[in-house]
Design goal:
Layout (H helix, E strand, L loop, with lengths): L1 E4 L10 E4 L9 E10 L2 H7 L17 E9 L11 E4 L30 E5 L3 E3 L6 H4 L2 H15 L7 E3 L5 H12 L3 E5 L3 H9 L4 E3 L7 H8 L5 E6 L6 H7 E9 L12 H5 L3 E4 L5 H14 L5 E6 L3 H10 L5 E5 L2
Parallel strand pairs: 8-9, 8-11, 9-10, 11-12, 12-13, 14-15
Antiparallel strand pairs: 1-2, 3-4, 3-6, 3-15, 4-5, 5-7
Length: 337
């Protein structure tokens, strides 16, 4: 089989096309012919050796997100069958409940090989069936960004109609958060420095979008937009550079789901958390059961992921470069067909 590997994480040019023997599924494993993959910011950090969680193993197959067809199953498999359309789960050993020490080393495209390959062996409980109305390219966008947004809003934030959700930027997590929030009947306030991207967020249902460059005190503007109350749930992807303002923009007793570190790391004052009785929780994607619940909601509502651009398998490096340019709106996908 053909696959891409990272012999040593030294930037996008280190992504190398390689040949490996076709794998065989073991007990309670499935073999998936990967039809599409998608990229996350984590993948860029991994190939540039900036990912803080761990040093990637040599010749790592990258990318956590992929979808394809089950072409073989190992002994004891009952959850899926040959011919099923599935997506792989970000963590192969986090089926449900709270995250565990045993689940952490099963993160695809980092701790273990990922999906930028023609064939992938996945755990039986590490795959979910795709919503029937989604293509493989659309299904490939779900495992990391969509599950993360669902975890933040539904599992942590207990999202309900009429809530106010604060999102940041136009990356995959933020756009899925906008889509899920609107699906539940919630209001959404966004931030973006691009007028064109802000207009697209409005077209997708955001109530308002604040330009954080022309309005650096965007948290105060968010308070004005909510009558001084603040957001019920803030999806925090910026990190240290935005978290202090998220403290202010979130209502008393509200929830902040801490997801990303796009603006770097720094020492933070915890006093606003105490004064405002905030619930601040970090999260690392989500479980197979969360993924399945999310897919039921996606299918029931006919939700379609937002794809910025699809690259062919032979142009995987170009897909990474497009991600690094930060010009995208929504997900960047690689087609393996």
């Amino acid at each position: 089989m053909k696959c891409y590997v990272i012999p040593a994480p030294k930037g996008i040019d280190s992504l190398t096309l390689a040949e490996r023997p076709d794998p065989t599924p073991g007990p309670r494993q499935v073999l998936v012919r990967v039809m599409a993959t998608s990229l996350n910011y984590r993948d860029l950090l991994t190939i540039e050796a900036q990912y803080a969680r761990s040093v990637p193993k040599p010749d790592l197959i990258p990318l956590s997100d992929g979808a394809g067809e089950v072409v073989a199953v190992g002994p004891g498999v009952s959850r899926v069958k040959v011919g099923d359309r599935v997506a792989g789960c970000f963590m192969q050993r986090w089926f449900g409940g709270a995250i565990s020490d045993s689940a952490m080393p099963s993160a695809m495209g980092g701790a273990i090989d990922g999906m930028l390959t023609e064939l992938a062996v996945l755990e039986e409980e590490g795959v979910v069936k795709l919503p029937a109305h989604l293509s493989y390219e659309e299904g490939a966008t779900l495992p990391c960004a969509a599950v993360t947004a669902w975890h933040a809003l539904v599992e942590i934030g207990h999202l309900k109609a009429g809530d106010v959700v604060q999102i940041q930027g136009t990356g995959g997590v933020s756009i899925f958060a906008l889509q899920f929030a609107r699906m539940f009947g919630a209001r959404v306030i966004g931030t973006s420095s691009s007028p064109a991207k802000a207009e697209r967020l409005i077209q997708m249902g955001a109530e308002a979008v604040i330009d954080y460059k022309t309005t650096p005190d965007w948290d105060k503007e968010a308070l004005k937009l909510t009558g001084g109350r603040g957001a019920d749930i803030t999806v925090e992807v910026g990190g240290a550079g935005t978290l202090p303002r998220s403290f202010t923009a979130t209502r008393l007793g509200g929830s902040i789901a801490v997801i990303g570190l796009l603006s770097g790391m720094a020492t933070l004052d915890p006093m606003p958390i105490l004064r405002r009785n905030l619930k601040v929780q970090g999260l690392y994607v989500g479980s197979t059961q969360m993924f399945e619940a999310m897919n039921r909601a996606i299918e029931a509502n006919g939700l379609k992921p937002v794809i910025d651009k699809i690259f062919p398998f032979a142009e995987a490096q170009a897909a990474y470069r497009h991600l690094r340019s930060q010009k995208h709106f929504g997900k960047i996908v690689i087609s393996h067909a």
